[in-house]
């Protein structure tokens, strides 16, 4: 008899504990697990998003996607911006972090200011930069002609030759402050005694950088690289606010193509297959970067 | 010799400051220019490139607020941001408290499930989310925009709060229990007040994410009366592409609250990013 009441109390206690996680669990199951499952399911169907029927097409959507040159073109565009971000943006972030790490005057001010662009939305940033790049009234052309370089003036975002790089520059402007904050935190985690010891051993500042700083920073570099790739490949709102994917398909990126398939062509299943292919690409790239970092650590 | 050494050092420091200052200028100038343009008129905005406006047209803001509908967009953004942030803090802290201080079967599996989702990108899930919201009749409703965003903030918030709750001393909890506090009492009266620093980080990050969100707003909100600022800006730009002063006023309205929040809370933001980075 006593055992039974004990059990009841225990059961009640456990149920109470579940109540704490219940709201989170319901939200998570509804708005994460179900949609993720649904993406896989829908990718096998031809479905317009409204009508009650959907038609099973097997891997047909994936075949369509793999053979779609605009889709791969959009992937290449995002890859190009990612390349710019990985090299120029991260190099600038590292340079600034190295300077501020020297206990330079105003370090706090720079920290606050460099993180200002990442605080703004892609829409706001895009709309402001639209005007800088504008062909008729743009600030860039204004300055160029003031410098006597008026010949170079153009509608930067409407010119197929410059559009993608110009979008990339906006993206880097938006992102470098974020890389700067993480890299600086990594640098400041390095014990100062290590620098002292290296200096006593007769290393010059370049030697200290390559022998002490770089090896210790590899995990941070990898983290920044992976997050740069994931963030840049999924670029979207900046594109919407500036070029909308144009001129032609010159600044189309994977997310704009997925949305075009979904909203533009009402092919929800096909859009899901694009999303899955894109997810796999992102996963593979992140894996490669992790593997590379492990190899680097061993040598 | 010594003079040359000092000179070189000085020169180096000047170059470094020049680099830092010029980069800082590129961060600030577009914002100043946005603001000063919002005070010009349609006629002077393209010819007058001065930063300082001699006769500021503050009425641009009144017009943007009422005729440009930015007043309504602003209010919507505030509603969404407050609801999502409140929802995230409440649901995540309850769950994190259970994961950290209570016992129940399946606890670890559930926690890792939340964690894993932070790391696997599923870029197409918004398509299925849209289909789901349609089934639930939540397309073009406030709730349909709020609930998915609460979910989106949960994983990171649970992770941050769980680590925090785990570090709370057991004695505090025990003495509260002796005083007759139930589990919920311990959560509400002991754990939550102590978790303020962690909650601050969660509030800032989620507020920035919601305030700046665009994709979901574009997908599911079609009534102007429900749109947040980011969506409203695109609608305004599409309809009045040439009304630059009003557009700039609208952008300023969208920028000021988030920049003010950032300046007040920047310490928390920087600890948040660095904590995540160092752990990751």
Please describe the structure with a list of short key phrases separated by commas or semicolons.
heterodimer; A: 299 residues; mainly alpha; MetI-like fold; 2 domains; two-stranded antiparallel sheet; globular; B: 280 residues; 12 helices; 77% helix
Query: What helical percentage do the residues of chain A reach?
Result: over 70%
The arrangement of helices and strands of chain B along the chain is: HHHHHHHHHHHH
Question: What is the chain-wise order of helices and strands of chain A?
Answer: HEEHHHHHHHHHHHH
Rg calc of chain A: 25 Å
Sheet-strand content of chain B, in percent, reads under 5%
* Widest beta sheet: strand line-up of chain A: 1-2
Please give the domain count of chain B.
1
Question: What is the highest CATH level, the class of the largest domain in chain A?
Answer: Mainly Alpha
Structural class of chain A: mainly alpha
Derived structural class of chain B: mainly alpha
Instruction: Estimate what percentage of residues of chain A fall within beta strands.
Output: under 5%
Radius of gyration of chain B: 24 Å
Low-confidence stretches of chain B: none
Tell me what the structure shows.
The complex is a heterodimer of chains A (299) and B (280). Chain A has 299 residues and is an all-alpha fold. Chain A has two domains: 2-42; 69-298, MetI-like (MetI-like fold, Orthogonal Bundle). Chain A has helices at residues 2-42, 60-66, 69-100, 107-114, 116-119, 122-133, 139-146, 163-188, 192-200, 205-233, 237-242, 254-264, 268-298; strands at 45-46, 55-56. In chain A, helix 8 crosses helix 10. Chain A is globular and about 70 Å long. The N and C termini of chain A lie far apart (67 Å). The mean pLDDT of chain A is 90. Chain B has helices spanning 2-37, 59-66, 70-101, 107-119, 125-135, 142-166, 170-178, 183-194, 196-211, 215-220, 229-239, 244-279. In chain B, 41% of the residues are buried. Chain B is 77% helix and 0% strand. Chain B has one domain (64-279): Orthogonal Bundle (MetI-like fold), CATH 1.10.3720. The model of chain B has no long low-confidence stretch (mean pLDDT 88). In chain B, helix 3 (70-101) runs antiparallel to helix 11. The chains are: A mainly alpha (299), B mainly alpha (280). Chains A and B meet through helix 1, helix 3, helix 4, helix 5 and helix 6 of A and helix 1, helix 3, helix 4, helix 5 and helix 6 of B.
């Amino acid at each position: 008899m006593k055992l039974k009441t004990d059990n009841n109390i225990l059961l009640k206690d456990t149920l109470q504990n579940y109540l704490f996680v219940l709201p989170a669990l319901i939200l998570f199951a509804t708005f994460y697990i179900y949609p993720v499952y649904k993406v896989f399911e829908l990718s096998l169907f031809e479905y317009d998003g409204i009508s009650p029927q959907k038609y099973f097409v097997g891997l047909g959507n994936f075949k369509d996607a793999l053979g779609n040159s605009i889709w791969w073109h959009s992937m290449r565009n995002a890859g190009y911006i990612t390349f710019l971000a990985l090299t120029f943006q991260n190099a600038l972030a590292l340079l600034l972090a190295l300077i501020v790490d020297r206990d330079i005057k105003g370090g706090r001010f720079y920290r606050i200011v460099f993180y200002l662009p990442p605080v703004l939305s892609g829409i706001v940033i895009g709309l402001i930069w639209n005007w800088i790049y504008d062909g008729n009234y743009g600030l860039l052309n204004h300055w160029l002609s003031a410098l006597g370089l008026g010949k170079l003036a153009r509608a930067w975002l409407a010119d197929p030759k410059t559009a993608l790089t110009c979008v990339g520059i906006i993206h880097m402007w938006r992102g470098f402050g974020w890389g700067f904050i993480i890299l600086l935190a990594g640098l400041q985690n390095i014990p100062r005694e290590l620098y002292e010891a290296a200096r006593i051993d007769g290393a010059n500042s370049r030697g200290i950088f390559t022998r002490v700083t770089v090896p210790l920073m590899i995990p941070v570099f990898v983290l920044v690289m992976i997050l740069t790739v994931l963030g840049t490949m999924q670029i979207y709102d900046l594109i919407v606010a500036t070029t909308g994917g144009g001129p032609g398909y010159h600044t189309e990126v994977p997310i704009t193509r997925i949305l075009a398939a979904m909203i533009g062509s009402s092919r929800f299943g096909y859009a899901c297959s694009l999303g899955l292919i894109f997810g796999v690409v992102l996963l593979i790239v992140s894996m490669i970067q992790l593997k590379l970092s492990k190899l680097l650590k061993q040598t | 010799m010594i003079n040359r050494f000092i000179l070189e050092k000085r020169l180096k420091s000047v170059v470094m400051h020049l680099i830092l200052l010029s980069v800082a200028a590129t961060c600030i100038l577009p914002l100043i220019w946005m603001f000063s343009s919002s005070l010009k008129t349609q006629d002077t905005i393209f010819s007058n490139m001065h930063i300082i406006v001699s006769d500021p047209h503050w009425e641009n803001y009144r017009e943007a607020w009422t005729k440009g509908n930015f007043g309504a967009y602003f209010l919507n953004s505030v509603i969404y941001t407050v609801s999502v942030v409140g929802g995230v803090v409440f649901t995540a802290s309850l769950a994190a408290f259970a994961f950290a201080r209570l016992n129940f079967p399946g606890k670890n599996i559930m926690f890792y499930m939340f964690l894993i989702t932070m790391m696997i990108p599923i870029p197409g899930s918004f398509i299925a989310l849209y289909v789901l919201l349609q089934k639930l009749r939540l397309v073009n409703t406030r709730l349909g925009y709020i609930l998915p965003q609460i979910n989106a903030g949960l994983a990171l918030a649970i992770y941050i709060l769980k680590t925090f709750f785990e570090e709370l001393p057991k004695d505090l909890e025990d003495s509260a229990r002796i005083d007759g506090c139930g589990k919920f009492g311990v959560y509400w009266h002991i754990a939550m007040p102590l978790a303020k620093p962690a909650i601050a980080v969660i509030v800032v990050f989620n507020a920035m994410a919601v305030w700046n969100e665009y994709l979901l707003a574009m997908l599911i909100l079609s009534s102007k009366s429900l749109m947040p600022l980011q969506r409203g800006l695109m609608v305004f730009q599409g309809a009045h592409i040439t009304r630059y002063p009003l557009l700039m006023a609208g952008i300023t309205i969208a920028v000021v609250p988030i920049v003010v929040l950032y300046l007040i809370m920047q310490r928390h933001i920087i600890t948040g990013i660095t904590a995540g980075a160092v752990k990751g």
